[in-house]
Design brief:
17 strands, alpha/beta, Metallo-beta-lactamase, Chain A, 7 helices, 9-stranded mixed sheet
């Protein structure tokens, strides 16, 4: 085990190889374990990195997968290396309808004895129901509880290259804190954090993680976003994927010990 950091009810294990699906815990107060199994940031022996994002979420009630990465073969190989059983999944949550977050879904649906529910923004439900007729596709509109203490933010509308786009993020609760996992933050990390604070008043934001989609932003724009997150009381950040190398460097410098690396192969344990 290396590089363990404790912060705001979070343990980060860099490169920890755990059989999360096999651990026995009790509901509600039990830890939630989140492992980044597909990402283009970071590297771990035995895992393949590629553009995209996928995170395995293990709870006492069962396992979830947040996004499926961009290459089915890489998702398959990484899951096999980590000894994660796709048949144990209750639900697959797709943050948005982009290839680097959805393409692994076809392999999952073909190699699971029990087909999980696929949760997508409601605006693209019909597309997924037609593309994957064997799947149970559920459209998410507003904030929705997926499992006890685990919610979708609900679908948030934006545009991407002139086309409509809809995105949801994952929110995990423990006590008076919440942890936010974004796919790409296409609606903007500021609007997404603001929406979470509005939807769940009184909760402290322990961590904002995942893709921030800031590759095209200037240094000053990134600093403004960083300042906003501080002002909103965000305790720690863990940007990856589409955040951009320069933006990640700026965040690391600005946040110091409150910057957390959560990349390929890293495991986050929410206490």
């Amino acid at each position: 085990m290396e590089n363990m950091a404790l912060a705001s009810g979070i343990l980060i294990f860099a490169g920890k190889r755990s059989l999360m699906a096999q651990e026995k815990t009790t509901p509600d107060t039990s830890p939630v374990r989140v492992m980044m199994i597909y990402n283009n940031t970071g590297s771990q022996p035995g895992l393949k990195g590629a553009w995209g994002l996928s995170a395995w979420v293990a709870t006492a009630e069962g396992n979830l997968l947040f996004d499926t990465g961009g290459d089915p073969d890489i998702l398959r190989d990484n899951m096999r290396h980590l000894r994660l059983d796709p048949s144990s999944l209750i639900s697959v949550i797709l943050s948005h309808d982009h290839w680097d977050h959805r393409n692994g879904l076809s392999w999952l649906l073909e190699h699971t004895a029990y087909v999980p529910t696929v949760l997508v923004p409601a605006e693209v439900r019909e597309k997924y129901a037609q593309t994957y007729p064997a799947a149970r596709v559920r459209g998410i509109t507003g904030p929705t509880e997926i499992l006890p203490g685990i919610w979708s933010t609900g679908s948030m509308a934006t545009t991407y290259k002139g086309d409509p786009l809809y995105e949801q993020a994952l929110v995990i609760f423990r006590g008076d804190r919440l942890w936010l996992l974004n796919g790409c933050s296409h609606p903007g990390v500021i609007p997404m954090v603001s929406q979470v604070k509005k939807t769940f008043p009184g909760k402290r934001i322990a961590l904002v993680s995942g893709g921030f989609h800031l590759g095209s932003k200037t240094g000053n724009e990134v600093r403004e976003i960083s300042d906003f997150l501080r002002q909103e009381g965000v305790e720690k950040i863990a940007p990856s994927h589409c955040t951009g190398e320069e933006a990640i460097t700026l965040f690391r410098k600005a946040w110091g010990n409150s910057f957390t690396a959560f990349n390929l192969g890293d495991e986050l344990v929410i206490l």
